[in-house]
Amino acid sequence: xxxxxxxxxxxxxxxxxxxxxxxxxxxxxxxxxxxxxxxxxxxxxxxxxxxxxxxxxxxxxxxxxxxxxxxxxxxxxxxxxxxxxxxxxxxxxxxxxxxxxxxxxxxxxxxxxxxxxxxxxxxxxxxxxxxxxxxxxxxxxxxxxxxxxxxxxxxxxxxxxxxxxxxxxxxxxxxxxxxxxxxxxxxxxxxxxxxxxxxxxxxxxxxxxxxxxxxxxxxxxxxxxxxxxxxxxxxxxxxxxxxxxxxxxxxxxxxxxxxxxxxxxxxxxxxxxxxxxxxxxxxxxxxxxxxxxxxxxxxxxxxxxxxxxxxxxxxxxxxxxxxxxxxxxxxxxxxxxxxxxxxxxxxxxxxxxxxxxxxxxxxxxxxxxxxxxxxxxxxxxxxxxxxxxxxxxxxxxxxxxxxxxxxxxxxxxxxxxxxxxxxxxxxxx
Length: 429
Fold this sequence. Notes:
The chain is α/β, with parallel strands linked by helices.
């Protein structure tokens, strides 16, 4: 991988342009808008047509029969089934703990709040080159733990018109209520507006290609969305104590996501930079996805050599990566200095791949610098908070005049009068 030296050079190399991953997609935006409008007008008929056009199959039915979902678990390898069950249990436990700690209601007193789960959520799981049961578990299980009443899965069919048994087995484990063999922008449109078969939902979640992201962006406001996701990315901060073979393996794991994935090492040691580069060459040689991984490393791979760990962390905060790994001596002592990251891995044994699959937290993370303001998909994505007010006559006497003054200053005379009427009534009483 390319090596840059010094904080200034690294900062220049890692600075993101003032635009997101969807910028410059004018032609694709037009296509997605046409798909959304067509699904709104023609409903199921449009979905059948787009599925045939984009996925190469003419479906007999959009919805997957529940018997097929129940049967799917028996069709996959027992070891894989057990691994998925372990992942599902850990994801549920993590988010149950998160729910107990974060979602506390305040119902007593004059001012408080109550928490209500969303009625329905749509989960999009892409097909890509292989099924992604992990993304399904990481999205649907937090929704189920939050108390969402109906979870609807949309995912592209295979060439034979059948959703992968692996995806269906994960859907059963996650407690998904309904499954539809449709993906892409047309699936997002169906979830947002509803069709004869696909129910309208309150929020659309899950990853996808740029067409899915554009569709989510366009339907936001009609429904909620969890976020807009770009290519995956990692920054590893390593000093001379790090294991170069491990660092290289983690960078390669990130790069194999796709040709636009970003894999960055920031190190305080020139020797470490050279050793990691050597390990990458050795480990890359026999990877089945060598071509894709090599392209990612060439386009968005980088090794930055800086003076100290504090400089490395400041560069990471500037970049706001999806994944940030601290592989330095005394890693825990640097946690408070990290301001922007989707998921923070502390120490050499905090392996990113474990979080990708089985650790417990969702692996649906902010990308493209959105970790500056965005969060890991979590329990709060599937609830809403309603404030509860019980002000009384004493509050009207204490606060009414100030409220009336502010309302008058804003030119909202009816607002001021609504308070004044009560104040007059209290004075007469």
